[in-house]
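Lab notebook, page 48
Experiment: co-folding of the full assembly
Goal: obtain a model of how the components sit together before planning crosslinking
Operator: M.T.
Materials (sequences as entered):
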Amino acid sequence: MDPVEPQDDELLVRVPLRTPGRGTAAPDRDRTEDPRVLRSRAAIVEAATGLFLERGYVDTSVDDIAARAAVSKRTVYNNFTDKERLFTDIVLGVTATAERFAAELAAALADVDDVSGALHDLAREHLASVTRPQVVRLRRLISAESGRFPDLAREYHRRAPERVIVALAGALAGLGGRGLLRVPDPRRAAEHLAFLVVGATLDRVMFEGEAAVPPAAELEALARDGVEVFLSAYTPA
Amino acid sequence: MDPVEPQDDELLVRVPLRTPGRGTAAPDRDRTEDPRVLRSRAAIVEAATGLFLERGYVDTSVDDIAARAAVSKRTVYNNFTDKERLFTDIVLGVTATAERFAAELAAALADVDDVSGALHDLAREHLASVTRPQVVRLRRLISAESGRFPDLAREYHRRAPERVIVALAGALAGLGGRGLLRVPDPRRAAEHLAFLVVGATLDRVMFEGEAAVPPAAELEALARDGVEVFLSAYTPA
DNA sequence: CCGTCTGGGTACTGTCCAGTGTAGTACCGA
DNA sequence: TCGGTACTACACTGGACAGTACCCAGACGG
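Observation: model returned without errors.
Model output:
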């Protein structure tokens, strides 16, 4: 499988390769990283990502992470200054996925002619992306810890859901400029489209967990109905 | 102030008066409650509600609660079997507010003639209610703890946001029956209306906290634009 | 005035956990 | 062969915190 296309049960995690927190003294030594370090770090990140998403931040101990990564606790602390840094590094790494998705969204709508068809495709894709189990867990995790990590939550929101809205607004403005839609306020239009399609599902899933994700047929209907309402309001007279 | 109308900075809390967890042996003794007990219990509930909403479940210790309630820890445990029970009792007590609100919503839309005006009023009220700081904190608190208390989260969602949707669906169906709206699927229509109006704000607030609540003028615009889109899709031809 | 009963206060126990210190081991390049 | 570096195992510290044992005070009946 293509390592750049995330599957339902995984998230791409990009963690900075330089060990943070010891840049004070290191004179940029050997740039061929020790394979032992790479191996340990990858195992730790993978284990921690899974555990954080399954149990949350507080209910995951560093001992748990070390155990699942088959690594000693000391090694965890050799690679990450503390539990908080490990957490934030992972979360910010994960948002890379969302950023890429936002860019694709905008591009897909750039120069279409069949507005209705394109919006239906976009809605389906958006809904599918947002209801992927790991994405659901990530949303819940971050909002759950937004009290402990307010900056992180803001950053995630800015980079992921917000960026999707902004990209969508740009695309809709483009369609408006070509006379294919009537878009007085692109930002508002993007929000309307997005939440017509994913709003109700997102809300339910936030409280009931990924088990509450509707079946595929219902997702299809949600996308269709949402776009239909959007078009009846935003189609030029 | 009327004790049944919640203000911005408070939530009505209804907690069962019988001490839970000792019903096994008590043969329904004196029903004139000891005033000391009533006083303690009220202080504990108030303190715990505030602390849970401010800091969350894990970051609030029973010692903190006892201190703010100006009561000993022992007294807390005399009135509530454990921290979990205290938490769930409080959360379920708070949902009483939301339940009442849902009923009012449905009633307000029952037999209006000016559909547009009524929907605008409803949208304004819904948005105002959902962005009240304490409501925002409650949403975040419950979804944050939905991993630890899945049943509680489900119950809250069923009683509060879900009940609003159901009531709204009923009201819209009524308007549809009178030919004032075209409502093929009342449930879907209710979701569309609700999330057109509150979706984007709800999402932002979930990550950025109650500080991200838009100013009154923007709330007004959100309600107006959302209803406008809804009407252009659901007005009979 | 006395015994008893109940709620409340203080001090404690047991546990969990983040983070550290240390001593030893495997591997790698010179 | 030697020195350096990362990893392991393990014990340990310090602190937080849920829940409890035990005693005191005051109300109430006799």
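Interpretation: DSSP finds ten helices and no strands in chain B.
Next step: discuss with group before ordering constructs.
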